[in-house]
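Figure 3 (text version): structure tokens given as input.
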């Protein structure tokens, strides 16, 4: 099974602290790296995680609050200093397209490679990225400005060859791809061997949902139902429910409620308010609702 990993580069909120940097993650799938949000410090975190800059071809920005995008221009500039030639695709809210081009003209007028800004409608659930390995779909969220999450969905792979049956029927190697694609096999005696006897089930499709800044959305579970890993912001604990409502954020318990309703396999909390010097209180509150919950932390790698 090909790698499908989530690297946490930063999991704090708007105020960086000595313990946490602001939001940034890398999703690795089948040898490709996708950057999700790009706060200050992302470049250094990429180096600490030993993730190759050249493998990042796509950046997804959930919204245009600084703790999710202030590192982007620096990263684009560094790519140029590293003599990058591969194109870079940025998917971000449509409201930021004009100012992005102004910033490019000011700070990176000649990056040396192609940079394309793909404006995203954060109000619609839509596939915005599609390649041979996966699709990425927007998850409309409710924050103080246009914001969306991202659903990474691996594409179904072909079934595995049942080597014992292939050898038993002396099927030539040249026919392997046809059998993976669903073909039966006819022996020299004219016997038709059905495809299901020649293959083993394909690997299950894996999914990751990244739910950035949002107030509690009771209906959100319908979009992330059954995902393998759900990252849901949990800025506050029960003690600051009023702040969560005021600033359009969620509590850890609310994040766990979404995970429970969606029947996800694993919930990862993050985007902690700087007021918490020990996030285990958030973990405890979430686990009261959804036991299979973990805390994100800089340097954490979750394999799906």
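Below: residues designed for each position.
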């Amino acid at each position: 099974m090909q790698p499908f990993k989530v690297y946490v580069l930063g999991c704090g909120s708007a105020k960086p602290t000595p313990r946490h940097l602001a939001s940034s993650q890398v999703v690795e799938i089948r040898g490709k790296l996708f950057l999700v949000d790009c706060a200050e410090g992302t470049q250094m975190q990429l180096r600490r995680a030993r993730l190759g800059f050249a493998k990042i071809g796509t950046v997804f920005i959930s919204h245009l609050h600084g703790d999710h995008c202030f590192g982007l221009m620096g990263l684009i500039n560094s790519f140029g200093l590293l003599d990058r030639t591969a194109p870079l695709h940025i998917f971000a809210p449509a409201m930021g397209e004009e100012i992005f081009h102004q910033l490019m003209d000011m700070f990176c007028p000649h990056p040396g490679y192609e940079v394309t800004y793909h404006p995203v409608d954060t109000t619609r659930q839509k596939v915005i990225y599609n390649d041979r390995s996966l699709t990425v779909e927007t998850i409309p969220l409710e924050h103080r400005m246009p914001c969306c999450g991202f659903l990474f969905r691996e594409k179904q792979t072909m079934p595995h060859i049942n080597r014992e049956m292939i050898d038993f029927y002396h099927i030539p190697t040249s026919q392997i791809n046809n059998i993976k694609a669903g073909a039966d096999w006819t022996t020299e005696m004219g016997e038709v061997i059905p495809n299901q006897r020649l293959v083993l089930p394909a690997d299950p499709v894996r999914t990751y949902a990244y739910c950035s800044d949002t107030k509690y959305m009771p209906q959100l579970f319908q979009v992330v139902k059954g995902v393998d890993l759900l990252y849901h912001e949990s800025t506050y604990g029960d003690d600051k429910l009023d702040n969560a409502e005021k600033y359009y954020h969620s509590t850890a318990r609310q994040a766990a409620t979404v995970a429970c309703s969606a029947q996800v396999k694993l919930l990862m909390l993050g985007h902690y308010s700087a007021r918490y010097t020990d996030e285990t209180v958030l973990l405890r509150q979430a686990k009261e609702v959804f036991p299979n919950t973990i805390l994100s932390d800089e340097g954490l790698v979750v394999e799906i």
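The chain has a mean pLDDT of 95.
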